[in-house]
Specification:
Number of helices: 11
Mean pLDDT: 91
CATH topology of the largest domain: Rossmann fold
Helix content: 25-40%
Strand content: 15-25%
CATH class of the largest domain: Alpha Beta
Order of helices and strands: HHEEEHEHEHEEEEHEHEHHEHEH
Oligomer: single chain
Shape: globular
Distance between the termini: 42 Å
Number of strands: 13
Largest sheet: 7 strands, mixed
Low-confidence stretches: 160-165
Length: 280
């Protein structure tokens, strides 16, 4: 761990937020960035960095948080196989606080559309703030859980909202949210075609794929973050999903690829392309 990261960890607590904000602000200035604001939003547990007229949100503080950094991260993870382009329709399932949503929005432009789905109520507040403060008119938000059937699901409510999982409740704290299938979601939003589908839902990918059989043929490219690495770290079999996802996609005519980086979280991403409609 670098000295800078150690300092962030040490100062990342309510009593020293003020000092941490000033240090982050100065660090951006030293890098020549036009930074206007560094703030921590306690109501939805996210950090805001307003740089070059755009606000970015993060679940934690950092020194290099901007569009360039987020775009690089996207290309290395969900966008490794396909990067959305102008005019595309993107479905972002498990949007979190919008780290990828805001990049998707800029990539698809005014003629494209981003449908961002986030189940956790507090995290969704951050996502909604991101949309409003940046006036992301091409982004449509949904505070629901996608699953294998319409109804409701139970989700963990731990301090790390980005790692909370559906059904695999290991905490006494949990909440219930409305749920629907991907098929119903596509129909409700009148989505004719999905150029790129990104999914990062902490194990619930095994449920979502069961509810997308009717509309999967509309998806050209996808990236699904499987979570076998959590299983390998000693957590329950709920997170062992990679083979299920790969088999499902292959059986539905998708060409499937993965990375070989030797980093577990990265290599558990499954990328698919539908050759019937993607033109490749």
């Amino acid at each position: 761990m670098t000295l800078g990261n150690s300092l962030i960890r040490f100062l990342n607590k309510p009593l020293t937020y003020g000092l941490l904000k000033k240090l982050i602000f100065l660090r951006y200035r030293q890098r020549g960035r036009k930074i206007e604001k560094v703030d921590y939003h306690e109501q939805f547990g996210a950090w805001e960095y307003r740089i070059d007229g755009t606000s970015f949100l993060s679940s934690g503080p950092g020194w290099v948080y901007d569009r360039e950094y987020l775009f690089t991260q996207l290309k290395q993870l969900s966008g490794f196989s396909y990067v959305p382009k102008n005019g595309d329709t993107v479905v972002d399932i498990g949007a979190g606080v919008g780290e990828e949503t805001i990049i998707f929005s800029s990539l698809v432009g005014t003629t494209g559309k981003v449908f961002a789905v986030e189940a956790h109520p507090q995290t969704f507040k951050a996502l909604n703030y991101l949309k409003e403060v940046n006036n992301l008119e091409n982004v449509v938000l949904s505070n629901i859980a996608l699953s294998d059937k319409t109804g409701s699901v139970t989700i963990e409510d731990t301090d790390n909202s980005l790692a909370n999982s559906i059904l695999d409740v290991s905490s006494e704290k949990f909440f219930t949210v409305p749920a629907e299938t991907f098929d119903d979601f596509v129909e409700r939003n009148a989505i004719d075609s999905v150029d790129f589908l990104k999914m990062n839902v902490e194990g619930a990918e095994q449920l979502i794929i069961k509810g997308m059989t009717k509309s999967l043929y509309k998806v050209k490219h996808l990236a699904i973050s499987c979570h076998d690495f959590r299983y390998r770290q000693g957590e329950s079999e709920f997170f062992k999903t990679k083979k299920l996802v790969m088999d499902f996609l292959t059986n539905h005519g998708f060409r499937v690829t993965m990375q070989q980086s030797a980093v577990s979280m990265v290599d558990d991403y499954v990328y698919g392309i539908n050759p019937a409609i993607a033109g490749k």
